[in-house]
Description:
single chain, D-Maltodextrin-Binding Protein, domain 2, globular, two-stranded parallel ribbon
Amino acid sequence: MLKHRFKFIMIVACFMFILAGCGSSNSNGNETGEKKEDKSLKLAYVAWDSEIASTNVVKYVLEEKLGYDVEMLQVDAGPMWAGVSDGSADAMVAAWLPYTHKDYYSKNEGKFDDLGQNLDGAKLGLVVPEYVDLNSVEDLAKDDTGKAFDYTIIGIEPGAGLMSATETALNDYGLKDKWTLLESSSAAMATQLQKAYDKKEPIIVTGWTPHWMFAKMDLKYLDDPKGSFGATEQIHTIARKGLKEDHPAAYKFLDQFAWTTDDMAAVMVDIVEGTSPEDAAAKWVEANNDKMQKWLEGVQ
């Protein structure tokens, strides 16, 4: 009797174990054992106000409209390109071409998908307030011009393409011996500019468009007759190899993402006036549903 009872218990236990196995799912599967899509993505970006704005807008659409879980990776330009090229980041919308990031593009060419421009009309160079009596980078070579500025140009993060272009300009215009390019950060540069502007003090900074500072202050670029800073640029979207196969919906959206300098400036101004980057991005997207719908055309 005990032997039969034990055998019955074992049969029941095995049957329950089989049922549990059939009905269970692992972290990557559903109840039928099919593998679920991993909907996590990593977006790399540099800490420029323009790229903070664009990356947060893209993140909002990916998460709120396409159901992805997005991690933003703030890095310098070199690691940003390297991350997308080696697959440790999925994409970026912060590639300044053909000048600012040309070295990073060439170094990693063939290791990424260039999805084309997401913004046209970008520009960079040396920037001064309108009240400053300078019009060209050539003016910096004139006797005693630099005294009012302490022969200093306020820069941003070391390693940025804009900093490399400014070093080139200092050489091209014969300024290297007298002028210093001060390494700083994008935020610190903008703060120094605002302080000087409020007091009508002379200042020269490394600047770019689009940037909120042009909406908040009356500024001008110094002419660059030698072309050290290149011509008008585009901002491109870059994706890792294999993203199209792994996440076709995200890839198609990224491929179709495009906006204007005015669009970007609207988000940047909201951020500098105190709105969080996440909230500023959400506000802009929801107020520009027509543009968002174009980005999502044909996205499953």
